[in-house]
Sequence to fold (356 residues):
Amino acid sequence: MRLQSVVCAATVAITASMGFAQTAAPDHPYSVVKAEKVGGEGGFDYVYADSNGRKLYIPRGNRVTVFDLDTLKPAGEIPNTNGVHGAAVDPKSAHGFCSSKPVVMWDTKTLEAIKSIDVQGNPDGILFEPATEHVFVLSHRAPNVTVINAADGAVVGTIDLGGAPEQAVSDGAGHVYIDLEDKDQVAVVDANTLKVTAHYDLGGKGGGPAGLGLDAKNHILFAFCHNPATCVILNADDGNILETLQIGKGVDGGGFNPNTMEAFSSQGDGTLTIIKEKSPTDFAVEQNVETKPGAKTCTLDSKTNQFYLITAERAPAATQPGGTATRAAQGPGGGPGGRRGGRWLPGSFTILVVGK
Fold:
């Protein structure tokens, strides 16, 4: 996942807080209930909700900005996070971590940095694994995973996945699932031994998986893919494909909400796809919620069942003769589903809240 650079003018204006709220139809219960333009410079990638600590962590290139999860008011920041992409929190030790180089560890109550942890590769995605109380830092370059003890910040090992990881999920019982974007696979890792135990192939049903969700109770994986734009649903025990469903274009994050039995994925084309698990063998797209172009990563507040997405406004893409957008106008973070376009407008960075 590449950092998005916040630079120039707008495609679609996002109004200030609450000004963008939509009215949800009865058969389409979710809508954007709040849009908070918080501004700030720097790139952005993953967004992370600490439901227990009631904080929202947003990496911005050289720092992690922190907001109150309930009010979206600024709560502080963690500085000196070189090239940061994501964040994760261990609720037991109250330690936070971000996927930067070096990884920064902080106290989630005071937001004071505790230590910097040297890692190899190019840190991108990140996951706190509760069964072992370890933090999994993902990298497209070897080592693909660096595993850190959340209690003291010590590196306990690395894992070669045989491919480039995008997102990881844990079943809370010692199994970690990691999608491999370049291999069209999901790797299965034993969290205790740090060994890869299986690779589940998506069987041509979906390519470039960039988001992942897990129904841990029923052992069902949801792999959200780019090409084609599908959710490939698998049995987490053996990798057997159960179903494929269409999602929006430009996915870069997803998950599963056990409170509502819904899987979800966020797309750069300005949609949040909600998939209802009616039973362990019956799935359907419940809704494609209109969000905003560029809002391709998301996080779930498990206490309120609300989703948080991040984006900024873009300038219209400059074109060459023949109507092709110039590379300079496209900017970094380009790709399908609305990820190409003009540069980001300074100060337009916005947090979207989706709920009922």
